[in-house]
């Protein structure tokens, strides 16, 4: 029988901006109290009950990703694991939509336009402007000082995010195929970008994928061929997961 290894993808716990239904992107919004609880009682609890163990963690430079990873590792009693924090795993940059309420935006521009910005593969929000409340905080963040000037985004489409994530996916896949048990704690659109790479989904297919907060997604690979074995497995209560997927898909209140 061929040797196999698993990869677990996970979207961070609910952030303060998720709670307020605001576009977040590269703004460093912290986890909400509910997000902290999700990391412990949903993500870590389901990983523990599935007997999942890890050797290495990947996350972004944003605190909601790093904090979720820290909470999970603490619950699993493996806080000593090496963590790779990579800016290329930052959430998609939502340009000048950053900090804007999704429902208010839909009331102004229509739901079709907002869903185009959110879900269309080439939907490109307007670039962030200096008048945006979060412009200087993002551009001057010490966490982003190693981002090359010519690669620092002012806005991104899903396509641009998929391309940005691609080199990190190659590093993750290399780890997985040599036997390293990897947990990747990332963001909604970045998780979708990774899923596109992992599953080989089309542009149209990935537009319809919705990732709930703190629900582990497990993939198994043939270590010799690099081929994906079977389908992804979401850990947790099926009804809850489906409800959360629908919530993510909607513009919200």
TrEMBL record:
Catalyzed reactions? (2R)-3-phospho-glyceroyl phosphate = (2R)-2,3-bisphosphoglycerate + H(+); (2R)-2-phosphoglycerate = (2R)-3-phosphoglycerate
The family database entries (Gene3D superfamilies) matched by this protein are listed as:
Phosphoglycerate mutase-like
Q: What does the entry list as the binding residues for substrate?
A: 11-18, 64, 91-94, 102, 118-119
- Name the Gene Ontology molecular function terms of this record: bisphosphoglycerate mutase activity; phosphatase activity; phosphoglycerate mutase activity
Its EC number(s): 5.4.2.11, 5.4.2.4
Q: What are the recorded Gene Ontology BP terms?
A: glycolytic process
Q: Does the keyword Isomerase apply?
A: yes
Which InterPro entries does the UniProt entry name for this protein?
A: His_Pase_superF_clade-1, His_PPase_superfam, PG/BPGM_mutase_AS, Phosphogly_mut1
The UniProt keyword set, sorted, is:
Glycolysis, Isomerase
Q: Where is this site: Transition state stabilizer?
A: 187
Q: What SUPFAM superfamilies does the entry give?
A: Phosphoglycerate mutase-like
Active-site residues annotated for this sequence: 12, 91
Q: Which HAMAP family match?
A: PGAM_GpmA
Q: Which family does it belong to?
A: Belongs to the phosphoglycerate mutase family. BPG-dependent PGAM subfamily.
The name on file for this protein is Phosphoglycerate mutase
């Amino acid at each position: 029988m061929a040797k196999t290894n698993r990869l677990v993808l996970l979207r961070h716990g609910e952030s303060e901006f998720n709670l307020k239904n605001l576009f977040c992107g590269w703004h460093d919004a912290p986890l909400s109290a509910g997000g902290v609880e999700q990391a412990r009682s949903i993500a870590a609890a389901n990983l523990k009950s599935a007997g999942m163990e890890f050797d290495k963690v990947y996350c972004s430079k944003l605190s909601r990703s790093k904090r979720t990873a820290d909470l999970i590792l603490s619950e699993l009693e493996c806080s000593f694991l090496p963590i790779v924090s990579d800016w290329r795993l930052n959430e998609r940059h939502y340009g000048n939509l950053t900090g804007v309420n999704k429902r208010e935006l839909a009331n102004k521009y229509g739901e079709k336009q907002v869903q185009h910005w959110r879900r269309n593969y080439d939907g490109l929000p307007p670039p962030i402007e200096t008048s945006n409340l979060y412009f200087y905080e993002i551009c001057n963040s010490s966490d982003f000082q190693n981002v090359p000037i010519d690669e620092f985004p002012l806005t991104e489409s899903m396509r641009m995010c998929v391309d940005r994530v691609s080199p990190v996916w190659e590093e993750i896949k290399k780890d997985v195929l040599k036997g390293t048990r990897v947990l990747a704690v990332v963001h909604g659109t970045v998780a979708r970008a990774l899923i596109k790479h992992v599953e080989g989904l089309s542009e149209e297919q990935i537009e319809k994928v919705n990732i709930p907060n703190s629900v582990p997604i497990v993939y198994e690979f043939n270590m010799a061929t690099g081929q994906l074995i079977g389908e992804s497995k979401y850990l947790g209560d099926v009804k809850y997961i489906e409800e959360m997927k629908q919530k993510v898909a909607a513009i919200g209140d």
